[in-house]
Amino acid sequence: MSTERVYGKRQFGHRARLALSPVLVARADEQAHAARTMWNLLHAWWQMMPKGKRTLANADAAIRQARGDIDFLAVLPAQAAQAVLKTYFQAWKNCWDGRAEAPNFKGRFRSVMSVDIPQGRDLNISRVHRRWGQVNIPKVGRVRFRWTKDLPVGKRANADNRITGARLVKDALGWHIAFRLQTVEPRPDNHTGPEVGIDVGVTVPLALSDGTTYDHDPWLTQSEQAKLLRLEQRAARRKTHRKAARSTSRRLHRTYDQIGRLCAKAKRRAVDWQHKTTTHIAKTYGTVVVEALSITNMVKSGKGTHEQPGKNVAQKSGLNRSISQEAWGRAVTMLTYKSAREGGTLHKVPTPGTSRRCSECGLTTPGSRESQAVFVCKNPDCGWVGNADHNAGRNILHLYRAGLALVPAAGRAVARRARRVKPATAR
């Protein structure tokens, strides 16, 4: 491979389902709870220590002492404990840079159970047959995982293509392992495909400027939706009859687990559809243009205040839920790296007026969008009629061709620190 063709080392992940026995599940749960406890102890240590002594060396000495004093922390491997320490300090750096909120305590039922395996050499991955492989998890044992992607193991692994580590993650569907892979890819040729503008929506998830639309069926079938409704009603009924200051019953926890499994199944189907759709778009079009949407502001609650209550609160709540289910930000993130991998580019343009402007004559007249799907230009000299989402996609592409694409300062995104966050003296 020539030096001119090398695109560079790329880090990406691959997630696989683990097949754990009840004994191994208990071991993995113990490690996850120990990792969460280690995080909480670090946070308590951070709050107690003076700013001048909040250093990585002092924190490392503190967790070593905690592992010696507290017996159940010993089930967590030493390298996994070091990973918790690094993750905690990185969380504070993200807070100081304004990319995230300040780290806080992790609750037992509100946080995601996970354990990090920082060293790839500890995994010792082997393939059993076509569908299953085996991986070594420290202090858990040799377990099988679903083999759905060819991994660089054995003779196929080298300094440029290898597995650098993994992370165990538990969701409503069980334990999974997320491998961290490093590979060297050749620099792709410039994509010669056409330009396209994409309008995202709720009724029509993705509408392209050339008239193409991408739609999907409901993430849950009718029987699954009916089952989810029954479970939610059962949970609400049991929660209503629960006495105050009493812990949640096991029956209610089991109901919550069933709801979580259905929601996880819906999310898995949504992510699969987005991956397939964005891959097809990235391979077809050389330049992809989207709106710079502020999704956080779009899904804000409409309740208002006690003095000025909001209007149509139930309708706004349903709209917010539909926007969150479509996950527009995740689709744009997929398009960004997949377009770059195929040699294309992704650009963002301002959002105002893209749905109300006529893409044929360029004028914005009141009442042109008669419904969600119909756009009729009220300009007497135009009178263009077409699909409203298609019209918005054409306007998005027009803004890019007019040179109105948003260019970050100095070619990169500028991270701004929130006003309420003050950097600590010791970093």
Describe the structure.
- Helices cover 38% and strands 19% of the residues.
- It has helices at 22-48, 56-69, 78-96, 222-241, 250-284, 295-298, 313-326, 328-341, 388-401; strands spanning 6-19, 113-117, 126-127, 132-137, 141-146, 162-171, 174-186, 195-200, 206-208, 213-214, 287-291, 345-349, 374-376, 385-387.
- It has nine helices and 14 strands.
- The strands form three sheets. Strands 2-6-7-1-5-4-3 form a seven-stranded antiparallel β-sheet.
- The chain has 427 residues and is an alpha+beta fold.
Features:
single chain, 427 residues, alpha+beta, 7-stranded antiparallel beta sheet, 5-stranded mixed beta sheet, 9 helices, 38% helix, globular, disordered N terminus, disordered C terminus
List the helices and strands and how they pair.
Elements: E1 6-19, H1 22-48, H2 56-69, H3 78-96, E2 113-117, E3 126-127, E4 132-137, E5 141-146, E6 162-171, E7 174-186, E8 195-200, E9 206-208, E10 213-214, H4 222-241, H5 250-284, E11 287-291, H6 295-298, H7 313-326, H8 328-341, E12 345-349, E13 374-376, E14 385-387, H9 388-401
Parallel strand pairs: 8-11, 11-12
Antiparallel strand pairs: 1-5, 1-7, 2-6, 3-4, 4-5, 6-7, 8-9, 9-10, 13-14
